[in-house]
Amino acid sequence: MLNAALAILATWRVTHLLAEEDGPFDSMLKLRARLGASQAGRLMDCFQCLSLWTAAPFAFVVIRATWMWIPVWLALSGAACLLERLGSPPAEMQLQSPPFPENHEHDVLRPGQDGPQG
User: Fold this and answer.
1) Contact 40, 18 (CB under 8 A)
2) Do residues 61 and 75 make contact, with C-beta atoms less than 8 angstroms apart?
């Protein structure tokens, strides 16, 4: 149980360091800048994607049987993603008015009191 908790926290910490932080001496920032828009660079920008790769070695810390590696690997990645969402600011919702301009009669969706005009 302790191994699982440590593996979850380690997966989140390493993934967060690689994806979100500048790192010591801006090392992670420089690495992300060097990778740019390459496939590896895009991987570094996606916490969920990166957590899959980060969780893979930590899964070996937790498993006792080889056949458990895949479920543990996915569970560690999922737990890291949940921790990331818990630490993120809440999403803001903005209500927008419908795209119909004011005083515009829409005969199909909103018939007038006298019925549709034709």
Assistant:
1) no
2) no
Give the contacts of 53 (CB within 8 A, at least 6 positions apart).
43
DSSP string, 6-52: HHHHHHHHHHHHHHH---GGGHHHHHHHHHTTSHHHHHHH-HHHHHH
CA nearest to 39, candidates 30, 49, 48, 29: 49
- Summarize pLDDT for 32-80 with one digit per residue, the tens: 899 988 888 888 889 999 999 999 999 998 898 999 999 999 999 999 9
The single residue listed with the structure tokens 């991987």 is: 43
Rounded CA gap, 65 and 62, in Å? 9
Dump pLDDT digits (tens) for 2-34.
Answer: 889 999 999 999 999 999 999 899 999 999 899
Q: How many CB atoms lie within 10 A of CB 7?
A: 23
